[in-house]
Amino acid sequence: MEVIIAKPDELARLAACAYEQLLRRRPDAVLGLATGSSPLAVYDELVRRHTDEGLSFAQARAFNLDEYVGLPAEHPQRYLNVIRHDFTDRVDFAPGAVQGPDGLADDLAAACTSYEDAIAAAGGVDLQIMGIGTDGHIAFNEPGSSLASSTRIKTLTEQTRADNARFFGGDVDKVPQHCLTQGLATVMRARHIVLVATGRSKADAIHQLVEGPVSAMWPGTILQHHPHVSVLVDTAAASRL
Ligand code: GLP
């Protein structure tokens, strides 16, 4: 695990560089994408490189980490819509190249299995970007998640629903109670993981992630077992290291 402490705009450049180097080498790479505010500056930097420098995603494929259960197809907070708005519709991904778990499926368990199959059929994720929750969750693997988990249905914690209420007009009751999320074993199969965290609210989670014992109570700590993880943090997020 490499830990890089820098200013937020420099972190975004570093993460974007990892994507650019991969895509210049392998234009048909499989990209792992994440919602949340942490990757936004990275997406903005990738859009800039697409617009100004011709970085192309036309042959790439992308898989989202997670999805709320039950949000209508056109709901702006459905993660597939969020990622389109924040990133993928601003560059040149081919139609259908960006996928997420299907939170509207009649059979949610089957949707989870077919999502795992789709990632495997694509050859696995080459480069996964992600944030981390204040309670140490990655994707939507909340504290207590099995370290060996695959894509599955999870119940969101009250803390995560409260954290995410800001995206639902501040009304926690509008935040779905369930989600589909890549499991910790799924995430661990990505060949390179870039985790971005900024701000004091992430300091405990980053402290545990980097220095804590590996534990299901801080799900991000599983990344200590991954051979190629880059943790990109600002000084506030690094303040407990
Ligand atoms: C959500 C997402 C996570 C993300 C977390 C942190 O719960 N499912 O993937 O890491 O939020 O979000 P933010 O980056 O906005 O702090």
Automatic annotation (TrEMBL):
<feature type="active site" description="Proton acceptor; for ring-opening step">
    <location>
        <position position="137"/>
    </location>
</feature>
<dbReference type="InterPro" id="IPR004547">
    <property type="entry name" value="Glucosamine6P_isomerase"/>
</dbReference>
<feature type="active site" description="For ring-opening step">
    <location>
        <position position="135"/>
    </location>
</feature>
<keyword id="KW-0119">Carbohydrate metabolism</keyword>
<dbReference type="GO" id="GO:0004342">
    <property type="term" value="F:glucosamine-6-phosphate deaminase activity"/>
</dbReference>
<keyword id="KW-0021">Allosteric enzyme</keyword>
<dbReference type="GO" id="GO:0019262">
    <property type="term" value="P:N-acetylneuraminate catabolic process"/>
</dbReference>
<dbReference type="GO" id="GO:0006043">
    <property type="term" value="P:glucosamine catabolic process"/>
</dbReference>
<dbReference type="GO" id="GO:0006046">
    <property type="term" value="P:N-acetylglucosamine catabolic process"/>
</dbReference>
<feature type="site" description="Part of the allosteric site">
    <location>
        <position position="155"/>
    </location>
</feature>
<comment type="similarity">
    <text>Belongs to the glucosamine/galactosamine-6-phosphate isomerase family. NagB subfamily.</text>
</comment>
<dbReference type="GO" id="GO:0005737">
    <property type="term" value="C:cytoplasm"/>
</dbReference>
<comment type="function">
    <text>Catalyzes the reversible isomerization-deamination of glucosamine 6-phosphate (GlcN6P) to form fructose 6-phosphate (Fru6P) and ammonium ion.</text>
</comment>
<feature type="active site" description="For ring-opening step">
    <location>
        <position position="142"/>
    </location>
</feature>
<dbReference type="InterPro" id="IPR037171">
    <property type="entry name" value="NagB/RpiA_transferase-like"/>
</dbReference>
<keyword id="KW-0378">Hydrolase</keyword>
<feature type="active site" description="Proton acceptor; for enolization step">
    <location>
        <position position="66"/>
    </location>
</feature>
<dbReference type="InterPro" id="IPR006148">
    <property type="entry name" value="Glc/Gal-6P_isomerase"/>
</dbReference>
<feature type="site" description="Part of the allosteric site">
    <location>
        <position position="145"/>
    </location>
</feature>
<feature type="domain" description="Glucosamine/galactosamine-6-phosphate isomerase">
    <location>
        <begin position="10"/>
        <end position="224"/>
    </location>
</feature>
<comment type="pathway">
    <text>Amino-sugar metabolism; N-acetylneuraminate degradation; D-fructose 6-phosphate from N-acetylneuraminate: step 5/5.</text>
</comment>
<dbReference type="InterPro" id="IPR018321">
    <property type="entry name" value="Glucosamine6P_isomerase_CS"/>
</dbReference>
<feature type="site" description="Part of the allosteric site">
    <location>
        <position position="154"/>
    </location>
</feature>
<dbReference type="GO" id="GO:0005975">
    <property type="term" value="P:carbohydrate metabolic process"/>
</dbReference>
<dbReference type="Pfam" id="PF01182">
    <property type="entry name" value="Glucosamine_iso"/>
</dbReference>
<dbReference type="GO" id="GO:0042802">
    <property type="term" value="F:identical protein binding"/>
</dbReference>
<feature type="site" description="Part of the allosteric site">
    <location>
        <position position="152"/>
    </location>
</feature>
<protein>
    <recommendedName>
        <fullName>Glucosamine-6-phosphate deaminase</fullName>
        <ecNumber>3.5.99.6</ecNumber>
    </recommendedName>
</protein>
